[in-house]
Design brief:
This protein is an alpha+beta fold. Helices cover 20% and strands 14% of the residues. The chain has two helices and two strands. It has helices spanning 13-18, 50-58, and strands at 4-8, 38-42. A two-stranded antiparallel ribbon has the order 1-2. The longest helix has 9 residues, at 50-58. The radius of gyration is 14 Å and the shape is globular. The termini are far apart.
């Protein structure tokens, strides 16, 4: 038993926000739109694990990672 989370790649914040309205998620877009490159991961909770990944990718410390993705790392 576990929770699955879909992670996908988007070029811009607006492109990522557009996926919010897709009823079946990033892998099943509406007709005429390309699906997003994505991965379905079990138990990789964004609120728990993604802060560590963000810190590793940006070079910032986990506790100082920005909450807003548009904010540059410290």
């Amino acid at each position: 038993m576990g929770v699955f989370f879909d992670y996908f790649r988007a070029a811009t914040d607006d492109e990522a926000a557009d996926v919010y309205d897709w009823p079946a998620g990033p892998t099943c877009p509406p007709p005429g739109i390309e699906p997003k490159d994505s991965a379905e991961l079990k138990n990789i909770d964004p609120h728990v694990m993604m802060g560590t990944l963000e810190a590793l990718l940006t070079g910032s410390r986990y506790r100082t990672s920005p909450r807003d993705p548009g904010t540059p790392p410290r």
